[in-house]
Amino acid sequence: MKVYTVPEVAKLLRVSKDTAYMLVYSGQIKTIKVSPKRGLRIPEEALREFLRQDKGGDR
Prior knowledge:
Oligomer: single chain
Structural class: alpha+beta
């Protein structure tokens, strides 16, 4: 299973890190907690699910 950090997801989505963290903390992108020091990770499937839920996209 591939996982991403929040800054990596921000780059992939071409948004700011603040926006990526907002998406995470609002529950729009699901995360897993790796450890207190290592922080949050976003599984690839959670990112795909977020992209599938795109409102108004040309898909």
